[in-house]
Specification:
Order of helices and strands: HHHHEEHHHHHHHHHHH
Shape: globular
Bound molecules: 3-methylbut-3-enyl trihydrogen diphosphate, magnesium ion
Oligomer: single chain
Largest sheet: 2 strands, antiparallel
Helix content: over 70%
Number of strands: 2
Distance between the termini: 20 Å
Radius of gyration: 18 Å
Length: about 300
């Protein structure tokens, strides 16, 4: 990682990138006309003022690597957070993980009601695609814009996040082997992380080998993210996490620590992280930002 104080370091831009995402999300949610007040409130509650914004940071870092202007990334970053927030609102519903706490606050269905939470999630998902399709900067490269929309749709669709979520729910109370667990984690969480990295790359012309290596990095760091998430549930307390640290155990979820033990899970995360960084080193360009976010993903404590 680059030393603190270096003005060129990605770490010195993290807070301004986070602020930009916050402002963009606020504008998107509050300037969309004709939204019923209760729905707008539930959407704002679910999206604004919380969250680590890891996916947007990955997009800004990927843009730095690929030499894509950061102004082209604001809408991509916002679309990722809209979709991510929708996935959390639905994931917390009684029919799914039945959680009461998210980002240190009551979950959306606890704050409002279930119907409002379901509809707010639906609305956030639609809005994510609307802003991508309407963005004037992305529209300057229509073929890339279509690939960006398709990447997001694929990542969160039946062969991606939603597919992973149903496997995760169906596996409750069953012991999974590592291969089955890996398949769930790669789809339910890994694919959106992958999209956060690959969507900006569509705006650049990467050589096929460089694109393959970036793909490999994106896939493995997505899995590291979810293994770390599983570990945090056993290592951390509810207050630090801002979500129930006993949720997985109480629902009988198979997780990396339950399948491999905490040390085994940590070793697997370390191994994937090393593979990911080796792949990233094969991509030409400034990869400091992606290294910074990858490091955060591996070592995060909340
Ligand atoms: C948590 O994601 C849910 C998973 C996909 C595992 P994050 O840890 O990125 O959640 P926020 O956005 O920071 O709250
Ligand atoms: C969340 O996974 C994955 C999605 C929202 C797609 P988890 O259920 O494991 O994450 P937390 O613990 O609720 O954040
Ligand atoms: Mg879940
Ligand atoms: Mg959950």
């Amino acid at each position: 990682m680059i030393a603190r104080g270096n003005p060129d370091a990605f770490s010195s831009r993290v807070e301004s990138y986070r602020r930009r995402v916050e402002e963009k999300l606020d504008a998107v949610i509050n300037s969309t006309p004709d939204v019923p007040l209760s729905l707008r409130e539930a959407m704002a509650y679910s999206v604004l003022g919380g969250g680590k914004r890891i996916r947007p940071l990955l997009s800004f870092a990927a843009a730095e690597l690929c030499g894509v202007e950061s102004a082209a990334i604001d809408t991509i970053a916002a679309s990722l957070e809209l979709v991510h927030a929708y996935s959390l609102v639905h994931d917390d519903l009684p029919a799914m993980d039945n959680d009461d706490l998210r980002r240190g606050k009551p979950t959306t269905h606890r704050k409002f009601n279930e119907a409002t939470a379901i509809l707010a999630g639906d609305a956030l998902q639609a809005l994510a695609f609307e802003i991508l399709c309407r963005d004037e900067q992305l529209a300057q490269q229509p073929a890339a814009q279509a690939r960006i929309v398709a990447a997001l749709a694929h990542a969160i669709g039946p062969a991606g996040m939603v597919g992973g979520q149903i496997l995760d729910i169906e596996a409750e109370g069953r012991e999974l082997d590592e291969a089955a667990l890996e398949a769930i984690h790669r789809s339910k969480t890994g694919q959106l992380i992958w999209a956060a990295i690959m969507m900006p790359s569509e705006l650049a012309s990467l050589a096929p080998e460089a694109r393959n290596s970036l793909n490999a990095f994106a896939r493995d760091i997505g899995l590291v993210f979810q293994i770390r998430d599983d570990l945090l549930e056993v290592e951390q307390d509810t207050q630090t996490l801002g979500k129930n640290s006993a949720s997985d155990a109480s629902r009988g979820k198979s997780t990396y620590p339950s399948a491999l033990g905490a040390d085994g899970a940590r070793a697997r995360a370390d191994e994937l992280y090393s593979n990911a960084l080796a792949a990233l080193d094969r991509v030409p360009g400034n990869s400091d930002g992606l290294k910074w976010v990858a490091d955060f993903i591996l070592k995060r404590v909340y």
